[in-house]
Amino acid sequence: TVTLRSGAVLPYERLVLATGTRARRLAGLQDGLDNVAMLRAVAEAHNLRARLAAAQDVTVLGGGFIGLEVAATARALGKTVRVIEAAPRLLGRAVSPELSAHVLATHREAGIDVLLNATVDGFAIDGTHLVELNIDGKRQPIDLLLLCIGAMPETALARAAGLECADGVVVDAHMQTSDPAILAIGDCTRFTDRRADRPLRLESVQNANDQARTATATLTGAPRPHDVLPWFWSEQGAMRLQMAGLVPPEGTPGHVTVRRPGPGANPNAFSLFHYVGDQLVCVESANAPVDHMMSRKLLEAGRSPDAAAVADAAVPLKNHLA
Ligand SMILES: Cc1cc2nc3c(=O)[nH]c(=O)nc-3n(C[C@H](O)[C@H](O)[C@H](O)COP(=O)(O)OP(=O)(O)OC[C@H]3O[C@@H](n4cnc5c(N)ncnc54)[C@H](O)[C@@H]3O)c2cc1C
Predict the structure, then answer these.
(1) Which of 7, 139, 192, 229 is the most buried (most CB within 10 A)?
(2) Among the atoms of ligand 1, which is closest to the Cα of residue 151?
(3) φ, ψ dihedrals at 166, nearest 5°
């Protein structure tokens, strides 16, 4: 049974957990500070909009998708923007080093101050106001701080039910947890992607939708193993990033990256085709939506066009689907 906060007790034959994630907090920093914002729930989005209007200097902690999207928006609103990222590159968990470098250059060109390998090692608070952050030992005044340091899977309920969890609720190819009567889908799950052949936890609308379809098939007695090409997008100012497939982990033997120029003479439009050996496994596109759509079709069809051919923008990708 499931017990609601109201005390109501609901029986179930099959239960689906879709509990998502919660924003990671900065260790030691109290909640409720009047110039610290997060972005997860709708109320936080409204709060951020109001705070952004009142602020002139915005510090974004975390150079992931959400942090960079907000940073680009704040910069476009004329704010002074600084991004603090602990890792050596932006979007390190999600995109290739080549695309990271392009994203970094684009944001810096727009006037965003991006600090890499930078860590917060202290803060000064006055009442409910964050006055300063210590960044790499230097005290920096704070007008508005946005915390975008990732999300943690919401597994409390799953743990209480005794389900296997490991940075997410562990599910099999049918979205079944360690208790076959309970399924889990979306951001809260850890599953083994057939193509990547490694356990993953993906935070994307597309993944949540596709896992919901797989779970529905399981629940309706027509099970089919989850086998879906992951894809993602992010809009950061004028930069539109679209990714199909998963970038091979750094150091993967046989990994080769081929650059295809995008449409027109725009140097900021291109796609990066990632091969492992002869196999095309992932395509990252910047401002090249048609190539992204075609790449998804190629990957879904299991096609691996010749690297020299994809590098030639004069040859439409759809030719490789024929
Ligand atoms: C600012 C922001 C921008 C994003 N942009 C993109 C994007 O551009 N593209 C993209 O693909 N993805 C994006 N995402 C990610 C996307 O929102 C998530 O991948 C998607 O919402 C996951 O869906 P879900 O149903 O698994 O979880 P959620 O949407 O997080 O829903 C989980 C729900 O479960 C509720 N819940 C949790 N625990 C319990 C409980 N014990 N009992 C009852 N209810 C509970 C939560 O309150 C929540 O409402 C973004 C996320 C954020 C925060």
Answers:
(1) 229
(2) 53
(3) -155, 90
Q: Write the burial class of residue 282 (CB in 10 Å: 0-12 exposed, 13-18 middle, 19+ buried).
A: buried
Indicate whether 233 belongs to any domain. Answer: no
Q: What is the pLDDT of residues 76-109, one digit of tens each?
A: 999 999 999 999 999 998 999 999 999 999 999 9
- Write down the ipTM of this complex: 0.97
- Enumerate the β-bridge partners of residue 84: 61, 115
pLDDT digits (tens, 9 = 90+) for 252-309: 999 999 999 998 888 999 999 999 999 999 999 999 999 999 999 999 999 999 999 9
Which residue among 47, 69, 203, 229 is best mutated to probe the pocket of ligand 1, counting the most ligand atoms within 8 A of its Cβ?
Answer: 203
Report CA(153)–ligand 1 centroid distance (Å). 10
The residue with tokens 């099999």 is 172
Same domain, yes or no: 169 and 143? no
Closest-CA residue, ligand 1 atom 8, reads 234
Q: How far, in Å, is the centroid of ligand 1 from the Cα of 192?
A: 20
**3-class DSSP state of 11:** coil
Burial degree of 67 (CB within 10 A; 0-12, 13-18, 19+): buried
pLDDT digits (tens, 9 = 90+) for 193-217: 888 788 999 999 999 999 999 999 9
170 found inside a domain: yes
Domain count, the chain: 3
Instruction: Let me know whether 271 and 167 are in one domain.
Output: no
Judged by DSSP in three states, 188 sits in: helix
Ligand 1 atom at minimal distance to the Cα of residue 40 = 53
Q: Using an 8 Å Cβ cutoff, are 201 and 190 in contact?
A: yes
Q: Whose CA is closest to atom 38 on ligand 1?
A: 19
Mind listing the pLDDT tens digit for each residue in 3-58? 999 999 999 999 999 999 999 999 889 999 999 999 998 999 999 999 999 999 99
- Is residue 9 assigned to a domain? no
